[in-house]
Design brief:
536 residues, alpha/beta, five-stranded mixed sheet, 14 helices, 28% helix, disordered N terminus
Length: 536
């Protein structure tokens, strides 16, 4: 009978309420239970990182820390929460300040200078450190020391000034008067004839010049009176005409023809018969004259031949038939060049100013104990470079900063960047894992990243807003600070005065003395809206 009555009661509830469960849940939501309020300060340990499944004992990013630490805090501090106001808003929230390891590698960025950038700078190209630093100040004003930026920009070309000497004129048959005679009908009347002679001089004087090297050549002339002219030229590599080029590989019979049939190669070891290029050219000439009797002047032969330099190998020589013999054909020439701005990409690093990081020559790598011009071990690189910097900067002061780029070998050569700071006696590589700090607050349900600063008003603060007589806010009915809006305005004035460095989004939990009557302490949670502090 009792069971029947109970069932009737339940059915009665079902039919007499529109949605009784909704009402029940609403009542439960209204009954917000205070948790335990507390402030936690903690530095993560190796065990903590293990609990977080972080085998490297650090976070890869700040966002990762913000995502992973709330769950960790809930597990570690399950009883901490918030104290509620009667209206359901948060009166006091537990907080946690966590110090953790953050992987903080050097920041790399790329940037291409735009037409608008040049206009803003009043320039058409970037050509010196002043230009570059003006650009970086405009586009990257808040970067940290050590930041690396690969900058693509327009710049004036590098042009080497060179003046022909008496020896140069003598080299091309103009040694009698040491000038070019440009009078009508004379040998150097045309600019092209002068270019050919200047090409001969530059090829002779600068055999190791890089492809694309530009020269502004000054030379003496005679046109009825002595004078001086200039010519802009640029080195370039020219592909031989494939229609005139024959690929040919020396055979055993060829080597036998020139007395090298025993080993069928050229022995180019020091002191051996074919050590010099000229010795090899002479033998290749003999072979080609024998094998190609119908060759025409201007024909090219790209000859591959076996060599021995301690081990077997091969070399290639490009030669040209001049009608009687074969000369080595150079693919390098110096052509007329017209000045124009060029696009370039350079790596810059911020130290005291933006500049290219220091790099090392092959000789410097040798000084640092390396067989090759690179390092293959990062720890050794940082240690040896740190020692070497003491020889480069003998008068360094504490906190001096140097950005370095070095060659690193790991299956291939790449470039690595590392920053060093001087501590007064040693250059130390700045670590890529640093200590960082995050603050969290409890929102009544879980932990959330929070930048709230807890602050208690001082006597000076009350005096600032005209409450210095009693150093509190009088919240009695009819008094000046009865309304929260008045207290909010005064607290905003205080925070703006005391903390000018903070801006939009900064939160404060402000504790302040009141008289109601009787002494008490109230808490106001505020956030900066860009101009003032408002209620959260």
């Amino acid at each position: 009978m009792k069971k029947i009555l109970l069932l009737l009661t339940i059915f009665s509830m079902v039919f007499t309420s529109c949605d009784p469960l909704e009402d029940i849940y609403s009542d439960l939501d209204a009954l917000k239970t205070d948790g335990i309020f507390g402030n936690v300060t903690r530095t993560l340990s190796d065990d903590d990182y293990d609990d977080l499944d972080l085998s490297d004992k650090n976070f890869s990013s700040i966002d990762d820390a913000k995502t992973m630490l709330p769950g960790f805090l809930s597990d570690e501090y399950p009883v901490l929460g918030v104290i509620w106001n009667a209206d359901g808003s948060i009166k006091k929230a537990s907080s946690a300040t966590i110090t953790y390891k953050l992987y903080s590698p050097i920041k790399f960025d790329t940037y291409t200078v735009t037409d608008e950038d040049y206009t803003e700078l009043g320039l058409t190209s970037l050509n010196n450190l002043g230009d570059f630093n003006d650009l970086f100040a405009s586009k990257f004003p808040n970067e940290e020391k050590g930041t690396v930026i690969d900058l693509t920009y327009t710049t004036e070309p590098t042009i080497i000034d060179y003046t022909l000497t008496n020896d140069d004129f003598d080299l091309v048959g103009n040694g009698r008067f040491n000038n070019f005679d440009i009078r009508p009908g004379r040998d150097e009347e045309t600019e092209e004839s002068r270019r050919v002679k200047i090409q001969t001089i530059l090829l002779n004087n600068f055999p190791a010049a890089e492809d694309g090297t530009k020269y502004n050549v000054t030379y003496a002339v005679y046109d009825g009176s002595a004078g001086v002219l200039n010519m802009l030229v640029k080195q370039q590599q020219n592909e031989p005409d494939p229609n005139l080029t024959t690929d040919y590989t020396l055979t055993d019979d060829d080597f036998d023809l020139v007395g090298n049939g025993r080993y069928n190669n050229f022995d180019i070891r020091e002191g051996k018969d074919e050590e010099t290029v000229e010795a090899r050219r002479a033998k290749i000439e003999t072979i080609l004259l024998n094998n190609f009797p119908a060759a025409a002047s201007g024909d090219l032969y790209n000859v591959t031949y076996a060599i021995y330099d301690g081990s077997a190998g091969s070399r290639v020589m490009l030669v040209q038939f001049d009608g009687t013999g074969y000369t080595i054909f150079s693919t390098t020439s110096y052509e007329f060049y017209t000045f124009e701005l060029e696009e370039s990409t350079t790596r810059f690093t911020l130290t005291d100013e933006w500049a290219a990081p220091i790099t090392f020559t092959s000789e410097e790598y040798t000084l640092m104990g390396q067989r090759y011009p690179n390092f293959s071990d990062i720890d050794e690189a940082e240690y040896n470079i740190g020692i070497y910097l003491r020889t480069l900067y003998q008068f360094a002061a504490p906190e001096d900063f140097v950005a370095v780029e070095y060659n690193y070998y790991s299956g291939g050569v790449s470039q690595r960047n590392v920053n060093f700071v001087f501590d007064g006696s040693v250059w130390n590589a700045i670590p890529t894992v640093i200590d960082s700090e995050l603050q969290f607050a409890h929102n009544g349900t879980t932990w959330v990243p929070d930048n709230t600063i807890s602050y208690t008003l001082t006597n000076a603060d009350f005096a600032l807003v005209g409450n210095g007589s009693y150093n509190n806010f009088d919240v009695r009915a009819g008094k000046d600070e009865e309304k929260v809006e008045v207290r909010l305005a005064k607290i905003s004035t205080i925070l703006l005065n005391n903390f000018p460095q903070y801006g939009e989004g900064q939160k404060f939990s402000v504790s302040y003395a009141v008289w109601k009557p009787g002494d008490d302490v109230f808490v106001l949670n505020v956030i900066h809206d860009g101009t003032k502090y408002v209620l959260q």
